[in-house]
Amino acid sequence: xxxxxxxxxxxxxxxxxxxxxxxxxxxxxxxxxxxxxxxxxxxxxxxxxxxxxxxxxxxxxxxxxxxxxxxxxxxxxxxxxxxxxxxxxxxxxxxxxxxxxxxxxxxxxxxxxxxxxxxxxxxxxxxxxxxxxxxxxxxxxxxxxxxxxxxxxxxxxxxxxxxxxxxxxxxxxxxxxxxxxxxxxxxxxxxxxxxxxxxxxxxxxxx
Length: 207
Prior knowledge:
Distance between the termini: 29 Å
Number of helices: 9
Number of domains: 2
Domain GST N-terminal: 4-82
Number of strands: 4
Domain GST C-terminal: 84-207
Helix content: 55-70%
Protein name: S-crystallin SL11
GO molecular function: glutathione transferase activity
């Protein structure tokens, strides 16, 4: 196991930090999982590189921000990206599909504060939006052809999709139940020994 002691700072949730946590876990990198309150974030926000969370602090004190950039950094460092230009494109494509789904559809519905509006938004996402995104992801998974989205080994795209499928399973179980390929993919990733141990020991959170 690596002797590095890194630090992941985020709110008490899976959210945009969970992919980073899982990649570090899979790579056997020791890290401190720092979970902060909104009040703590308000106090430290201006001191962070881009005023966003998560941030990843390396063992030499370097602080990285912006989750897509962090994931690509980790992918290159821990051989979860690719040296092949077309495979890099396909990894980026899958991650961009996930970003569209999360930013444009899931977050506005899940974080709606008005309960009536939230119910309406959740219903619309499940009926109108998720089927198309799940089909896109299923097609990309099948195009990968080896049980992974790209190539023959775990990539940052696989991890990012997995974390969002966890969210979909919790909030839209009927949709997840209809998507056999994605459900089986999620179960395969969750059963990898290091990831399974992480899931078993992490805090229970709603997002």
